[in-house]
Amino acid sequence: MSVDIDEPLQTMLQRQPLFSGLPPEALEAVLAAGLARTLPANHILFLEGDYETTLFVVLSGQVKLCVHALDAREIVLGIAGPGHLFGEIALLDEGPRTASAVTVRPTQVLQLEREAVMPVLQASPAAMLQVVTLLCKRLRSSDQMLEEILLHDAGTRLARGLKRLSDEHGREEDGGLRVPIRPGEGTLESHTGLQRDTVSRLLGVWASEGMVRVEPTGILILDLDSLEQAAGRAPLQAHPAQTWTQRRPSA
């Protein structure tokens, strides 16, 4: 079905680096060519190595971007939630897909074809500069994940993966920061390259220490400073036991 051009959708896209340099009328032209699709969980949007150039924006739900190791292990490179886009590399260079994209749960996406997007981007120098910035960010993220898998222990990898997911998808709720990653979905395991029993054991330890609370709908981070310490990073404030509620700035 076609997409209604509304203010929330325009605002959502303007927050994305790929589109943030576009004037409003150019963004409207891109949206007018979009196609909204509603997909079930575990739906494959594309596979690594496919030659197709569609760009997707997540409107609701979640999509995982993953590759498979030689031993068939799935490694998740990222999770795209509402407002996030994916598929931009093949759109830009017309090369093969660098990863597979699979819905984690029922999901709605906005589908944009290369023929509609590229002429608009090419006509805007500011937009093309944002493209370079976006690709640099993707490269940094891939390098960081490779370093974690090769050089860090399980606890550090899980902490960094959870912190990365909280930065992208977390929302303040119930005195903490909720990450909508459901236990048993396999997202954390694939995102960090860890086995399910390892993830379950570490989350159990962290829950007993008051760092997190594992719930059916997601993981609630109660002590962000301790999570940053477990990730090998210094907390933003001096006291390592300070909770999310304590360190949250007042309104």
Could you give me the name of the CATH homologous superfamily of the largest domain?
A: Jelly Rolls
Question: What name is given to the CATH topology of the largest domain?
Answer: Jelly Rolls
User: What would you say the CATH architecture of the largest domain is?
Assistant: Sandwich
Number of helices: 10
Low-pLDDT segments = 1-6, 234-251
Q: Please indicate the percent range of residues in DSSP E strands (runs of 2 or more).
A: 15-25%
Estimated helix fraction: 40-55%
SSE-based structural type: alpha+beta
Give a description of the structure.
The structure is a single chain. The chain has 251 residues and is of the alpha+beta class. It folds into two domains: 7-141, Sandwich (Jelly Rolls), CATH 2.60.120; 152-247, Arc Repressor Mutant, subunit A (Orthogonal Bundle), CATH 1.10.10.10. It has helices at residues 7-14, 24-32, 88-93, 114-122, 125-151, 154-169, 187-192, 196-208, 224-230, 244-247; strands at residues 35-39, 44-46, 55-60, 63-68, 74-80, 85-86, 100-103, 107-112, 171-173, 176-179, 212-215, 218-221. The strands form three sheets. The protein has a four-stranded antiparallel β-sheet with strand order 1-8-3-6. Strand 11 and strand 12 (218-221) form a beta hairpin. Helix 6 (154-169) crosses helix 9 (224-230). It is globular. Residues 1-6 and 234-251 have low confidence and may be disordered.
Keywords:
10 helices; 251 residues; Jelly Rolls; Arc Repressor Mutant, subunit A; 4-stranded antiparallel β-sheet; alpha+beta
